[in-house]
Amino acid sequence: MSSRIRWIGGGLVLALTAGLGVALAATANASIGEASATSTATDVTYRFTYSGTPDFARAYVDTDRDAATGFALGGVGAEFLLENATLYRHSGSGWDWTAITQVTHAHADGVATWTLPRAAIGESATPGETDLVFQVESPEQTSEKITQRYGDAAPSQSNPPTAVPGGTVSYAPTDEIFANPERGLYRHAGECDSATFDEATLRSYRTGAKISLVMCVFYLRGFRTGPIGADALAHLQKQFDTVRAAGLKMVLRFAYTDSADGADATKTQVLAHLDQLEPYLRGNADVIAVMQSGFVGAWGEGYYTQNFGNNGVVTAADRANRKAVHDKILQVLPTTRMVQLRTPHLKRTMYGTAALTDAQAYDGSAPARTGHHNDCFLADDTDQGTYLDRAVEHPYLRAETRYTAMGGETCAVHPTWTQCATATAEMAGLHWTYLNVDYHPGVIDGFRTGGCMPTVETRLGYRLALVDGTFPPTATGGQHLTINLTVRNDGWSAPINPRRADLILRSTTTGTVTRLPLTADPRRWAAGTTTTVTETLTVPDTLTAGSYDLLLHLPDPQLPTRPEYAIRTANAGIWEPATGYNNLGTTTTVP
Question: Using one digit for the tens of pLDDT, what is the confidence trace for 37-91?
Fold first, then answer.
């Protein structure tokens, strides 16, 4: 028996181990995410994601759900411990375990899984319940407690539906709140140029708060009259890297001042800065959900400015300079990304007063790539100057935002506009994709007390739910396979960025995956509509005979191997967090 000494919470702990890692601190660290527990009639499977390259992955299993018995950690009293591939039973007080057996286990590439017989931990009841806490070391990370209910849905994903061979499958919707990429509430804490994102904190937004977006307002205060410094550019790259590692994306804006003196840069200097920023924007577009035009004026919102027409007095030359900046942003940013302007008046003066049409949408032009943000949403009938002529500009926005990104924040409590009924109607009508959960606190608290916060959390952006699908029971190599899949968008907007749609054929015996790209564009699955996707696909003639599960994958084209960037449909029991696939609940046989 070996021993190891550690300091935990200011106290000395002596951990006696026999083939085990050290005793564990009970401090939760949200770097562990997507914790789930699923079961069949005979087996249980535990799974979670983590950061780093730990030596030990652990699951603490509290089968009697009594925190006073077993090993105490994170609100459970564990009778059993899984450490890597070994199952242990708690043998006494403290860190005292007896090895029982080896189990199926893997932890690599940020995912840990175990599968073991239910009988090994004495679980036979259906329904029944077990409490679980997961942990990795080193560095040490501990999850929050979850509860597994045998025969019911797992805490973060339901058990996949029983696969049926071909035919028509119907899918049950869910009202669960979960993170999906490029939509929903966002966090904004600190200035992006001076504060440093923390990966564990960002990951906790996604896994705990179900938030996939962060705001990055990057101030260039020290560079109004010269090039951006190397340290600032390196810091920007570090922010991109951290957001990517955590599985989030950012809403990005640059500005020169947060003062009403409007101390910004000249047009010439802004354009030079954008030349400097181009490789960073192109190289990290994968984690830019959308960019706000910024640069001009206080906070990059364009009103108080020393160089582009101050305090609402904007000349024709000023308008031309503002358009030159916006067009330059569109030029240096990949064409797959949109740029948002602060008011509808700005876009109407730059590109004409007609709203974007269905034929123009997503064509890569400047109007198609120019969206809208409102940082004083619901403040009053003009949103404190966002609308110059609401009777004209509000209908324009309703039409525009069917195809362009719309988001922002609130700035003040209003006795009518910020009430739940009015606020949700506004967000629905203007196709809001994202909203700041940190500001204005009075408005956000009003949503909570008014009972509409769950609606806001689930309806912002897209919310795609499968309705039903028809699939062939057999598929012959080299021949056609036709599928019909009905998708309903219960969200307030469509997806804003390009998104692939693939049919996955996964061998039920070997797990080998064959990907058949669909021609469907999920951006066309409009808010409040139901779309039937009918596709005839060619089965590779090299496909091995056997049975194949059918799954839908909606990956990010730039991050196709990252499951946290794939779209999860709002259905019970079909999401696979380890793969990012939506299980269609059917099989096809290749003879």
Answer: 777 667 788 888 887 789 999 999 999 899 889 999 988 999 999 999 999 999 9
Q: For the stretch 199-233, what's the b/e string if a residue is b when 16 or more beta carbons lie within 10 angstroms of its beta carbon?
A: bbebbbbbbebbbbbbbbbbbbeebbeeebeeebe
Residue 3 has pLDDT above 90, yes or no: no
Per-residue pLDDT tens over the stretch 427-449: 999 999 999 999 999 999 999 99
Nearest to 433 by CA among 333, 569, 290, 566: 290
Q: Pull the structure tokens for residue 425.
A: 């109607």
Assess contact for 40 and 115: CB atoms under 8 A: no
d(CA 213, CA 198): 14
Q: What is the largest CA-CA distance in the chain?
A: 81
Work out the angle at residue 500's Cα, subtended by the Cα atoms of residues 498 and 502, and round it to the nearest 5 degrees.
170
Spatial separation of the C-alpha atoms in residues 266 and 296, rounded to whole Å = 9
How far CA 191 is from CA of 214, 253, 269, 299, 369, in Å, comes to 11, 11, 22, 11, 26
Q: Is the dihedral of CA 2, 8, 13, 15 positive or negative?
A: negative
Neighbours of 377 (CB within 10 A): 27
Contact 390, 383 (CB under 8 A): no
Phi, psi of 434 (to 5 degrees): -150, 155
* Phi and psi angles of residue 393, each rounded to the nearest 5 degrees, phi first: -80, -30
Peptide bond into 540 cis (omega under 30): no
